[in-house]
Structures are given as C-alpha cells and as structure tokens.
Amino acid sequence: MGSLWKAFKENRTKIWVGAVTLLLVLYLVVTFERSILLLSDANLVAKGIGAAYLVLPIIGAWALIRELVFGARTEKMAKVLEAEGGLPVDNLPRTPGGRIVRAAADAEFEKYRVKAEAAPRTGVPGSGSAAPTMPPATASARGNPCATPCDSSALSPPQRSGSGRPLGENTLYSNICSNTMAA
Predict the structure, then answer these.
(1) What is the 8-class DSSP label of residue 133?
(2) CB–CB of 60/31 below 8 Å?
(3) Interior CA angle at 122 toward 124 and 116, to 5°?
(4) From CA 64, how far away is CA 60, in angstroms rounded?
(5) Does the predicted model carry a pTM greater than 0.85?
C-alpha cells in the first residue's frame, strides 16, 4: 500500500490530467452526438443550432490536443534541462503554507538576472542582441520580408494605388527588421 501511495503522489498531476481529459472527451462525444441529432431534425432552426453546435467539439478537441502536446513537450524539456544540470536547485525557504519566501526568491532571481545580463543569448527577446535569421532561401520560401539581416527594403513605404490602398506584397510599413538591423 505504501508503494501505491508513493506512486500516486509522484504521478498525481498526470492522474488529474488524465481524469480531466477523460471528462472533456466524454463532453465532446456527447456534444457531437447532440449536434448530429439536431442536424437530423426537420426544423431549419434546429439544423442551424446543430451546425453551430458541431463546431464546439472540433474546437475542444483541437484545444485538448494542443494542451496535451504542450505538456508533453514541457516535461521533455524539463528532463533535458535536468540531465544537463540546467535546472536550479530548489532550496529556498518556505512559509508554513509551503510558499517560497518572497525576499529569498527576489535575492535568488537577482543572481540569475545578473548572470543573464552578463552573457545574453542571441535572439532572446529583450536582450538587445540580434534576432536569429533564417537562411535566405528558407526565409523567402516562408514569405519573410527580412530574408537577410540588412534587408531594409521591407522598411520602405508601400506603393499605393489611386484609391490609397497598398499595392503588392510589401504592405508592412513598420520597423519589421529592427532586431536584425540593431546588431
């Protein structure tokens, strides 16, 4: 019984995620079934409600899949960081309720802030360093107007038609390359 309790405590988040996922799947199945029932009705209003109701399980399934994939990727990233020794040791003092003491957390954060400012990584937002760039072939294939770090053509005003509407694909008149040109 002790090992079962230990296994439960170690995996309780996954167990709750599984339970909530099961309930959501049950809800999505019932919603889908009800929408099919409404679509088969002769009344046009019922058909309209059924069609609108059919969208709910599609959006719900998409959101569920995205959340589960996000959770799996986050867990994988945490395992990689742990294996590389990249995770900080959690040795901060806690209140009787289990929360970390704010002053200790602020002091610990300050150490990491100084370390990050001393050696900024390329492409990290807010670091003041250049954003990573794609090879020109990849960038242009994806429709990136900033195919190279010094491509300032994206900053030119768009050509306008007689009606005042922008012409062509280069309609972004903004500092789209600010990160790459600041380096």
Answers:
(1) -
(2) yes
(3) 65
(4) 6
(5) no
d(CA 1, CA 3): 6
DSSP one-letter string for 82-137 = HHHT-SPP----B-TTSPBPHHHHHHHHHHHHHHHHHSPPTT-TTSSSPPP---HH
Q: pLDDT tens digits, residue range 90-146?
A: 889 999 988 999 999 999 899 888 888 888 775 444 444 444 444 444 444 445 444
Tokens describing residue 100: 């970390």
Query: Token pair 């019932």 is at which residue?
Result: 30
At residue 96, the 3 state secondary structure works out as coil
- Token readout for 104 is 């200790």
For the chain, what are the domain ranges? Answer: 12-84, 124-157+170-183
Q: Is the dihedral of CA 125, 129, 131, 132 positive or negative?
A: negative
